[in-house]
Amino acid sequence: MKTVELKAPYLIFTGSESRPTYAKTGAGLVEWRRELCLGHLRLSGSTLDLGLPDMTVAEAKAAGIRSLVIGTALVGGRIPDDWLDILEEAVLLGLDIVAGVHSRLADIERLAKAAAKSGASLIDVRVPPAVLPVGTGKKRSGKRLLTVGTDCAVGKKYTALQLEKDMRRAGLKADFRASGQTGIMIAGQGLPIDAVISDFVSGAAELLSPDNDADHWDVIEGQGGIFHPGYSAVTMGLLVGSQPDAFVVCHEAGRTHIEGWEDFPLPTIEAVIERTILIGQLTNPNITCVGVSVNTSSLSADERGKYLADLSDRLGLPCVDALKTGTDAIVARLGKLKVA
Amino acid sequence: MKTVELKAPYLIFTGSESRPTYAKTGAGLVEWRRELCLGHLRLSGSTLDLGLPDMTVAEAKAAGIRSLVIGTALVGGRIPDDWLDILEEAVLLGLDIVAGVHSRLADIERLAKAAAKSGASLIDVRVPPAVLPVGTGKKRSGKRLLTVGTDCAVGKKYTALQLEKDMRRAGLKADFRASGQTGIMIAGQGLPIDAVISDFVSGAAELLSPDNDADHWDVIEGQGGIFHPGYSAVTMGLLVGSQPDAFVVCHEAGRTHIEGWEDFPLPTIEAVIERTILIGQLTNPNITCVGVSVNTSSLSADERGKYLADLSDRLGLPCVDALKTGTDAIVARLGKLKVA
Ranges for the D-glutamate N-acetyltransferase-like C-terminal domain (chains A, B) (predicted)? Predict the structure, then answer.
């Protein structure tokens, strides 16, 4: 059984989009995997600048590019008709197409036919593999860190990516493990955990972070929230299957309620730590919290410093804003962690 | 959005099966919904006796039967070829076919064509509806009881069915709500929760027990186990979405480990109670345990009495074997329950 896997290097395709906020996937790929992004293809009129050389599909092929990655959010979730000539050309040249949209690529007849001819793959990163295991709970070799959150959309993915970067810089062996579509595009592999049938969630999480070297860290992207009225099942399965040695709680400064569920006050960071340990002990008795990462983008630099210092005093844990301060304080604590 | 729904009354079809243990679904339907089972159709040579009159498909149609229910477990999960004449005849006469097998009924061309012609439905009770909601966590009217377990296969379904029966006899308004395939066949509706995509598990559970009269009880069939290394995500989503006022812990006397996961000792009943309350409080602060139902089939009658009495002393809760002693002691406690 396998995770979703992409072939690098990439051509980032952004259609006619000019607004950076609608091209977050493409921008994220360039931000975190610059070395795998060789070219940018945009339709005439687009002013979007990803800092990559413009390339046609033919130039991409000549440059050794193996996948065209659709790097925009699509209004309505569908592939626009005026993209089809370009996508078909890419497929016929043997490039895989990678997308995270609602409509299935293989349901578009022109692309399916072209893929059958060239042998290229049409990869929907929202679609999990057809066959997944049931979780065994068996101890795997290597170490694991999971990011968890007080809510959705509080920085679990970017915290994990920054941890991977900082851990590698500190000389640790670390690999980001993606559990959502944008993460999968960035990592080049992974499993869209929230799209997995519930019986197989913890099994999928086991597949996502397999046996590894004893001193290797998988840094696993969390999903949902253990106190989330809609998504806690996903969080539970990912936690139990990941059997993390360590976890980092992600939070957004100033958020008071579960976003979109205004009847539900946000859990405290302490409550998330306690509950995560309680549940995580099922598959890893040594699970421990190694820090907190707060999205402080609503605060000034002064306020951020005070907020993080106060929080660190309160919790007795390193508290960072992964994207503003980095995660070195957490990595230092990880280095001291004794793992059985 | 709707649950899976069946049309009664039923013709129970058991092919050439003669072994009662392989016809549990059919037997369960007769046991719990005798009034909906008008006839039995078996192939020549079968000695299986469900206590129903034998009927051909044509006789069933004439008797007003609306669905043919496949009441056997299938080795390999496939519909045998020698069933197709009978199933096709039933479909052409307008009877729905109801099955809980791995192969999709609609993928069998003869049946799909016949259904297109007659307008009958091919209902796979393992297949959840295509569109399900995300859980809202909003309080619904009416009362809910959920059966939970120390493990899988400890009597959660039959305890819920016995509770429904005993509650109705005691004058309470009660409806069994099915979350698994056999339960759905018995209830005539429900949702196969373990086959739902993880993002929608708690939403599916909400759909399963909608708003109701203030004094009405939904008695919801539990799934998995909150300490189960494979299936805890299903249990979590069902618990959070069900927002139960009351729960009953199901257990099997003598079981020491999670069945099939021998590295995992069975949790104590106390641990299951504590954890279920802790998690259930997210969507119902008043959640409380009202009793325990133990499968004591490995014990003698004397041993059973002592086992249940000792357990009741230990826990301070009514403890029954739902199928051997009934659940009146639990129903009595339910009657005294104050629900906000």
Answer: 134-331
